[in-house]
Amino acid sequence: MWARSRQNVFAWLVVGPFAIVLAFPFYWMLMTSLKTNGDLYNVENVPFVFNEAEATPTERLPLKDQEWLPLGVENITTSSYEFIFRDTKYVDWIQNTALLGLVVVLITLALALPAGYALARLSGGWGQSAGVGIFLTYLVPPTLLFLPLSRVVAELGLQDRLWSLILVYPSFTVPFSTWLLMGFFKTIPPELEDAAMIDGASRLMALVRVVFPISLPGILTVVIFSFSLVANEFIYAVTFISTSDARTVSSGVPLELIRGDVYFWQSLMAATLIPSIPLALLYNMFLDRFIAGFTGGAFR
Amino acid sequence: MEASASPRPRGRWRDALEERRFLAPVLISPAVLYIGLLIGAPLGLAIYLSFTDATAGSLTGDWVGLRNYTEEWGSENFRRALRNTILFTLVSQAIVLVGAAILAHWLVKDFRGKWFLRFLILLPWAAPVSLGTIGWLWIFEPTLSVVNWTVVRLQTGPLDALGIDLVDPLDPPQWLGRPNLAMASIIAVHAWRILPFATVIFIAGLASIPAEVDDAAKIDGATGLKKLFYVTLPLQLPIALVALLFGIVFTATDITVVYILTNGGPFNQTQMLTMWAFQTGIRGSSLGAGAAISLYLLPILVFVSIGMLWFARRAEVT
Hints:
The complex is a heterodimer.
Chain A: H1 2-33, H2 37-40, H3 79-87, H4 90-121, H5 125-137, H6 142-155, H7 162-168, H8 170-186, H9 191-198, H10 203-214, H11 216-232, H12 235-240, H13 249-257, H14 265-297
Chain B: H1 12-18, H2 20-50, H3 67-74, H4 76-107, H5 114-126, H6 129-139, H7 146-161, H8 179-207, H9 211-219, H10 224-252, H11 256-261, H12 273-283, H13 287-295, H14 298-317
């Protein structure tokens, strides 16, 4: 019992400082996004908490009378959130990212599910090599391909359209997803399909009726991580799209909300924080499965 | 299990679909074709473009041989970009490996509140990188933000009392405006970003060490540091190298952090190969030269790929 609580304390002492440093930018985003101008631009204020300040006419203070709140929370304003949703194209960018993610994930599954299954089961000796080969293409970075692809996209007349990203993004989600799915399928005993096939099902039917349903957690993991790759992508989105209507969140916020030398830090931080939190929560929920699939492939 | 074991009669097409030799290529080829079209073809196109004087607006140009490569090699900005890319990759990966080894060592254990700490640690990797970097852009802001607020309070408080004079409170450091500080900032942000990923890979590696190894070490009397050096570290080495290889690729080929923090500035002092390729190829419209710059990254990728193949083969044998 004593050894156990000692382990708890040590773990917190070592991991805790790392967690503080790694998560601090997000704390600072949250604080900044809720600060009033008077608070933020007064260099005498302690920046880590909220401070009392004269509100400008556009700033609403929803918790003004709740003085019992800690950290000066009674001084927060939600104006920057109202601003990005009302006066910028932020909602468009979120919609674009969601739509893009959805379509890319569907294309990815259509290509990677059969390939991952075949590499895990059907291909015999060369399957492992082919799997590694497909995986290695994931290491070819967008920064090497964006110049020629920008020309191809222009030739196809896809510039400034979400279609250009829909076309190109599966090039990095498919290799990654095929690898993960191959790992997941290897953990499913082949006897299950064999049994279904003895009962008269064709292999494809066994695949759809038996293998895919059991692999649902693995497939969901691939969906989450592919979506997160899409939401992360920056350089293709910057190069292929130059109209603000068609931007994604990851390119729209840095390119459209940062204009010139005047930074509106509160709304900028609100815009960076909103997509980060749900993505991080999803990521955490599926992390253990991700680890299992990733190492199940070959790097044991 | 061969398909012929099934009792039902079938047409030739359906028989063919039950045949491994036929079915496997049918299932794999769409993915391979897509990848070939969208990675192989552009890669080939990049190599072709790098030998031409193509500009934005056309896909072809006149053949100029190696001129783009040699001209870039002679250019001061390119040299600096290359040096910076190497420095940036090596230093940030060194930080990441040490941090990930420590974090993973504790995160494979069970303790109270682990889920919460793990969530905090994974935030930098899970959040979109361009958005996280904007957070840092604000953190480094010299007059209103937290880093300089803390630095100035430290200087006027404890450091002055000790007679140490590190920063001028009236002119605090311009983190992204001075070449050396800007490089250090970029390295720090990248280490911050990759550390959670390396930790995840390390955890995967540690989790795959069977419990018998622990027991055997205990029976042989290996504990503490001895166990760390003779048992845990050697077993962890392969996965550490996998994390390192990934980290090298993710870092050397990244453009987002430098794009948002400094754009290669001040005066091209923090230029990276990727950023310089973007500025030459997209902003400067010299498609051929830009392609040549980014292709200087290829040796790194080839090196890493060979490393990965080596690991894959090793895993296959054991």
